[in-house]
Amino acid sequence: MAWLNFEDLAIVLVTQILFFAFGWYIFVKKLFRDYEINHQWVQILFCATLSISCCMFELIIFEIVDFLDTSSRYFHWYLSIYLMLLMLLVALPFSISYFLIQNLFADRHSVEKRTKFILTAIVWCIFVYSFWKIGNPFPILSTKHGIFSIEHQISRVGIIGVTLIAMLSGFGAVNYPYTSMTYFMTSVTSADINNAEKRLLQTWEKIVIKKKQIATILHNQRSNTNQQHSSSAPNTGSFWSYVKNFASASSTQNLQQLQKECFYSEEMSRQLFLEYVDLKFMEERYIQSRTLKGQFFNYLGYFFSVYCIYKIVLCTINIVFDRVGRMDPITRTLQFLVNYIGIDVDIKFWSQHCSFLVIGVIVLTSTRGLLINLTKFFYAISSSKSSNIIVCMLAELMGMYFVSSILLMRMNMPLEYRRIITEVLGDLQFKFYHRWFDVIFLISALISIIFIYVSQQQMQKEL
Predict the structure, then answer these.
(1) Which residue, 165, 172, 174, is CA-closest to 408?
(2) Which branch of life, at top level (predicted)?
(3) pLDDT tens by residue, 397-448
(4) Is there a single domain that holds both residue 127 and residue 11?
């Protein structure tokens, strides 16, 4: 097998094991350290998806630095793509379907395993059908390839993944300057925090007093009820009986009134607590902004705010004029330095090294950003019953995210390094994905700007 070098295979296998171990560590220690069910099959699926994703990024870097034989790189590219599609279209969706059916019939022990398996297969078939129908509204279909070809599967994965990347990028491009720049920070004094804390404590004290009054009324009502039952011959027509009945009705009205007031006080305490937490967070942000690290992130925020405006304008131009860049930004920058500024540089040499650096930064930042967002999302919606399903869904989104990152990353690479990605991924409409990214990025960025503006105005009113 001339196309398979066993030394190269051993190198990639070792890196895969390291990536898998890294994913296992991240899963257990960082992302899901409070994971309640601890199902090892789910952990294996998540770590395998992360490992295959990192392997594809690794192969891009190997292509740039010309490491491993060309035939070996092709083999590992195809192997990684097929393994990723197997995870995204079979293993993860089937596991999600299985855990979903298992949760639905958790209280019904009479349901046989065979029935659960059949229902799982039905749900998985529904997923496959829905996944296939996603591609119908988009110009990604090609009559050259069969329905089971790699091009058809990657094209549909790319739609979901590019949409996810564009949404996160649009929000991040707007949110990062907002959270890091001192211009958008609201100054909070110690008096503001003390007043908020005092109001919160007073509300809690009122709640405690009302709960004590409610407990006293309930205790008195139970005592009166016991006395009435213990009386052998109650005189219902006596004056004292009338007084007791009147007092009982009055205490019932007081109880209802106190319960209503207690409910409103608890709602108010929740709002006050959230306001207090927001004030403490703003105070910490303001204190941190005065440090050297905070000032660095402040200037970085100005840079990203300019980049955000530039990206929004560029996306608008690309959408209006149906334009997609044909030259990667690195080569374009080097040609500008040579042709217009007169700097004598070796374009091919520096293009390779700068591409290696830029791709490495993109890989690290995108992986870190995605893992952080996955962690926040998991803790926001997970529960003891749904955690297995959510982890599998996050692994599914993560795989689609990384595959789509390679689709988009292709444009940031010089032409000689794009060739292998183009050949491996097949006859895809790369221009469509970049245009789709621009559309979703623009929508996400504009919605984020509106949302942040409204929340900022609301915060100013509350203060």
Answers:
(1) 165
(2) Eukaryota
(3) 888 888 888 887 776 666 677 777 777 777 677 778 888 888 888 888 888 8
(4) yes
Banded pLDDT at 382 (limits 50, 70, 90) = low
Asked if 185 and 286 touch (Cβ cutoff 8 Å), the reply is yes
- Averaged confidence pLDDT in the chain: 75
Q: How far apart are CA 120 and CA 95, in angstroms?
A: 9
The DSSP secondary-structure symbol of 410 reads G
By residue range, what is the domain housing residue 35? 1-134+348-413
What does the alpha-carbon distance between residue 278 and residue 378 come to, in Å, rounded to a whole number?
Answer: 22
Does residue 83 lie in a domain region? yes
Note whether 161 and 404 are within 8 A (CB).
yes
Q: What's the DSSP call for residue 184?
A: G
Q: Specify if 264 maps to a domain.
A: yes
The model scores a pTM over 0.90: no
Choose among 61, 50, 47, 46: nearest CA to 11.
61
The predicted model gives 308-313 an average pLDDT of 78
Domain assignment of residue 257, yes or no: yes
Q: Using CA of residue 381, residue 384, residue 390, residue 391, what is the dihedral sign?
A: positive
**Selection from 177, 180, 186 nearest residue 297 by Cα:** 180
